[in-house]
Amino acid sequence: MFANLPGKVALITGSTSGIGLSVAKKLASQGVHIGLNGFAKPEEVTAIRREIEDQYKVKTFYHGADLKEGPQVKSMMQETSKALGSVDILVNNAGIQYIEQAVNFPEQKFNDIIAINLTAAFLTTKYALPQMLDKNWGRIINIASVHGLVASVNKCAYVAAKHGIVGLTKATALEVAKTGITINAVCPGWVMTKLIEIQIQQRADQYKISFEDAQIKLLEEKQPSVTPVSTDQLGDLITFLCSNSASQIKGSTYTMDGGWTSQ
């Protein structure tokens, strides 16, 4: 356990499933109180909160803000801080995707992706920083993507947003470089989530091959290791970035992509 983390408060957007939920549990295992956000049924939220509270003996809070809506983002930040005492750690994880050629890309879809994947991260950072500056301590980790560093076809909005996240990370990190606040980005490649599992199974069914062979077929197009990143691995990296050992890591971009961006 990292000595500086017990009693801190983390808000993780998009944390009712996948990467965000794994990060929430990793931080809770360090004694960090957890602010959750994301779309889920009330009974699912209750079950997630109960599991985290019972297993890790920390407090939790949930806010269902629609991150496309600026006033809801502000309310989430204020209410989480009021319920848990502060927001010491902010993990901007929420994101959406839409795949289409730019010439046919719906304007509203483009705007929604920019709003959720980029603007919301700016707003949460804006609202978190005053309290962090008062304490002279804070951690902001922005979940970008390999698509914050390289591009793929038919993903113009997502690539634009994730490149923006990397830029936002660098600029804001420089603004607080002389303080006890760090701001960094993590750029995963293929991550084993339910969404990816479905894609792999679809390929397995389509080609009548095993799940393992279908995984290789999907990943070998981009990820040389042909092994997906696990949500636990991402959680471990983010937890480290919250520690005192990472206090001089500022404005950095960490890839965890099985070699994708080394090509």
TrEMBL record:
Annotated transmembrane regions: none
Any single GO BP term: monocarboxylic acid metabolic process
Record-given protein name: 3-hydroxybutyrate dehydrogenase
Pfam families associated with the record: adh_short
Family as reported in the entry's similarity comment: Belongs to the short-chain dehydrogenases/reductases (SDR) family.
Family matches, as PROSITE patterns: ADH_SHORT
InterPro entries with a match to the protein in the record: Sc_DH/Rdtase_CS, SDR, SDR_fam
